[in-house]
Amino acid sequence: MRFIGITGGIGAGKSEILDYIRRHYQCEIYLADEVAHLVKQPGTEAYRELVDLLGQDVVAGDGSIDKAAMADRIFARPELLERVNDIIHPAVKEYLLKRLERARAEGEAELFFVEAALLIEGGYLALVDEMWYIYADEAVRRERLGRARGYSQEKITQIMARQLTEAHFRKNCDFVIDNSGRLEDSFVQIDRKLAGFVRRA
After folding, report:
1. For residues 117 and 89, which has the higher predicted lDDT (pLDDT)?
2. Closest by CA position to 8, among listed 170, 140, 122, 154
3. Could you give the 3-state DSSP secondary structure of residue 52?
4. Which residues contact 108 (CB under 8 A, 6 or more apart)?
5. How confident is the model at residue 78 (pLDDT cuts 50, 70, 90)?
6. Spatial distance between the Cα atoms of 134 and 142, rounded to a whole number of angstroms
7. DSSP letters of 92-130?
8. pTM of the model
9. Taking the alpha carbons of 150, 140, 10, 64 in that order, is the dihedral positive or negative?
10. Are 189 and 16 contacting, i.e. CB atoms less than 8 angstroms apart?
């Protein structure tokens, strides 16, 4: 079973690519943002560490960590961000590696995917068998983000400025899917990549 990372800039269309893979291949897919939410649920080690770090006032009425309160605390004390990441990121990796081990033991999935915009920065190159880069032309990404999310061009520029450059993505990834055009063209690229390697569902 191949462990594959899926990364790319905002608006590149990672969700649509993963939806196609989920429907057509025997695989397990995890979104790092969703896993990060899971690992800080009450009862987890990360939850206890975060509450110890940030204080009881970030705990909501239902016992979960209040996302807005946590963000406010970090905004007030920016030095906390690195410490929070030092708690969450290792917990996410541990969760994924346990799921990977379980999937390999069960033997049903042929592919195991994890998706995040920050996989390269997060050190996942050392964990995955392959890193895939979902590319889309900047003008296409801007149009998508404005249409689908209502983002202003200023906001899009600010977000893009914080992400890796295209050159950096390409340098660190094993396979590039050009998702600038029709989704059907992107699906053909995926099928060609996986042909003869795994069976379609």
Report:
1. 89
2. 170
3. helix
4. 26
5. confident
6. 15
7. HHHHHHHHHHHHHHH---SEEEEE-TTTTTTTGGGT-SE
8. 0.89
9. positive
10. no
Helix axes 67-76, 45-54, angle to 10 degrees: 50
Residues in Cβ contact with 198 at an 8 Å cutoff, skipping those fewer than 6 apart: 2, 25, 26, 110, 111
CA distances from 91 to 31, 36, 112 (A): 14, 8, 18
Q: Measured in Å, how far apart are the chain's first and last C-alpha atoms?
A: 15
Q: Which residue has the tokens 């939410």?
A: 37
How far, in whole angstroms, is CA 91 from its chain's centroid? 14
Go through 163-185 and write b for each residue having 16 or more CB atoms within 10 A of its CB, e for each that does not. Answer: bbebeebeebbeeebebbeeeee
Q: Read off the tokens for 189.
A: 């690229």
Residues forming a β-bridge with 30: 114
User: What amino acid occupies position 58?
Assistant: V
Residue 72 CA to residue 49 CA, distance in Å, equals 18
Structure tokens that stand for 154 in this block: 């200023």
130-162 confidence digits (pLDDT tens)? 999 999 999 999 999 999 999 999 999 999 999
